[in-house]
């Protein structure tokens, strides 16, 4: 496991093997989870306000990025806000020049833009993109919670040029270190899918709230609001600046999906006004595969340990490993763990 | 309390004072809650399959609508599906002719259409509309749960011609019988607000699911889906036929709101494509009053009993009582209870 994260290997348990840049909700939760799982963590935050608490939790805190690098982690996870990314990368570049062993990853919700920035900083050859599907409507160290990652899936993103050893290092960090599962994608596939299930819906939730606020009878509408409204607008209660940043970082995909949504909603309005039975029937039937997928998920969750999803072994070739992993993800599989450097255990969990 | 529901008055505890037509999720939950609160209930369902269980719960079950009316309730609550409403009303009309004392209400999610049907059946003079803001993604007697009404707000709808004694009967049924709060509206105001916070968002959730299902990388998108997607599409997992019926019953309001949503989403897409900073700033700022309203609600919930919302006494005039109650609702107040026939206790809970 030369490139992996030793769980109980030759190092002292407290020796940092993972460096975390940014102790907000995502980075703070990750740091606390890793420490709780016995993995040494060194962290740097742009302001030292969480350091006293973080140190009490067993997280070694660095006064500077240089001190973080000097602590000698195998992997640095960039958990800073995306707007801070160019500055952090400029700071890291000279520090990492003499340390080729350190692999770089991040947790940003868009992957194409981050890779461009990493490559612009000359760090592309040691980078693997990552996006843990974890979060809530809070933010900051105060909200950090190791359980945020319970059952979270990570998307790792790679290119035809990605070093397989770097991919293995990040994959083992996620499966063994964090205890989560993986799908491996290219940046474009990730960013389009993330726009569909997260960035675009955030705009939709915000537009719903705006519709209510702009209504002259908004007090009455707010009074009538029950579970469906609460759930559909929850993400619009998050910091709107954070939502705006997330949307702008994936703006082309989000804009295209918003236009598609607008067309769907206009289509329903037309069908309602014309009482177009066929169009309404088609609209309400189209989502059936997703309803059945969620019903199977619920049934499996109720069955619990008695009904483990089917697992299979996936051979990962030395050449074309990116395509093999992408095809597995497209079939709805998730990577559970690496049984060897070229053998993964994957589980079927998709819609099809 | 001549027109009210006696809680511990002259009747035997088991004597039905409330008749429930339809023992699905909403009617079944209501019937079980009333019985649990010591109120006699007689119920009729179009199929007798829940009767054995309902009788065990203390609900008297009627073989026919006639038997339900003969049990002598003060109030009949129509909890049948809206598509069954015309048939139920035709059946009730001759049965109610000799019983002018019985007040009629319902729990339908649209109020204008139901009133038209009630008036067409010649029962308009004894009718008060009602819509409890309660429900979940399940349906049917098996899902019935008295707790479904915990903290639920009811919208009662009235017209200039509504008999005040009938309104009082239904208002006391809700506040004393069910233990919930009220706002009193006209049908149009209700149906527009309900379309905004429930019917239109159901279509939006369905359109989100359709977008995912239609995507060639739907397995990957489904894998990445986390909390925001789950919450925003939960209502799209309900029976799509029920959603379609709800939407069609309020189709004019829903269509107008869908077009407005489509325009908002297109506006954001335009702003993203043009990087229109001012438009994006305005879009993400507009919902701020709703965010602050929810933050106040959360703070009040956390403060618990120590911080009761402000209550005041509302005098309800004999003439123009409809406007007095509507103005109170527009100010964000909710009716907690009736202190007398023309005095209500209301609590401030709105956005403004």
Automatic annotation (TrEMBL), chains A, B:
Keywords: Oxidoreductase. Residues 16-302 form the Prephenate/arogenate dehydrogenase domain. This is Prephenate dehydrogenase/arogenate dehydrogenase family protein. GO terms for biological process: tyrosine biosynthetic process. The keyword Aminoacyl-tRNA synthetase does not apply. Signal peptide: none annotated. Pfam families: PDH_C, PDH_N. One of its GO terms (molecular function) is NAD+ binding. Belongs to the prephenate/arogenate dehydrogenase family. InterPro entries: 6-PGluconate_DH-like_C_sf, NAD(P)-bd_dom_sf, PDH_C, PDH_N, Preph/Arog_dehydrog, Prephen_DH.
């Amino acid at each position: 496991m030369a490139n992996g994260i030793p769980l109980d290997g030759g190092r002292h348990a407290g020796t940092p093997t993972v460096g975390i840049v940014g102790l907000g909700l995502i980075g703070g939760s990750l740091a606390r989870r890793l420490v709780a799982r016995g993995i040494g963590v060194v962290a740097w935050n742009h302001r030292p306000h969480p350091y006293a608490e973080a140190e009490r939790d067993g997280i070694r805190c660095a006064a500077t990025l240089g001190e973080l690098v000097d602590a000698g982690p195998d992997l640095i996870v960039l958990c800073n806000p995306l707007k801070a990314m160019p500055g952090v990368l400029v700071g890291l570049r000279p520090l990492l020049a003499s340390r080729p062993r350190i692999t770089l990853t991040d947790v940003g919700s868009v992957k194409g833009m981050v890779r461009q920035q990493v490559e612009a900083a000359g760090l592309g050859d040691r980078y693997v993109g990552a996006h843990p599907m974890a979060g809530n409507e809070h933010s900051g160290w105060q909200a950090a919670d190791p359980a945020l990652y319970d059952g979270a899936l990570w998307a790792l993103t790679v290119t035809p040029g990605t070093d397989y050893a770097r991919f293995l290092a990040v994959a083992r960090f996620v499966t063994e270190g964090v205890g989560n599962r993986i799908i491996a994608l290219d940046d474009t596939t990730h960013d389009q899918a993330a726009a569909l299930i997260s960035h675009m819906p955030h705009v939709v939730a915000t537009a719903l709230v705006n519709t209510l606020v702009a209504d002259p009878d908004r007090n009455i509408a707010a009074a009538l609001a029950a579970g469906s409204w609460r759930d559909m607008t929850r993400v619009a209660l998050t910091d709107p600046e954070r939502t705006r940043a997330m949307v702008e970082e994936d703006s082309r995909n989000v804009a295209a999906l918003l236009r598609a949504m607008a067309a769907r909603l206009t289509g329903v309005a037309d069908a309602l006004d014309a009482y177009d039975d066929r169009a309404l029937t088609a609209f309400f039937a189209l989502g059936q595969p997703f309803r059945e997928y969620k019903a199977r998920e619920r049934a499996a969750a109720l069955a619990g340990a008695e009904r483990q999803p089917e697992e299979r072994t996936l051979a990962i070739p030395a050449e074309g490993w990116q395509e093999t992993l992408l095809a597995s993800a497209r079939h709805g599989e998730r990577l559970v763990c690496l049984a060897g450097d070229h053998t993964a255990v994957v589980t079927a969990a998709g819609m099809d």
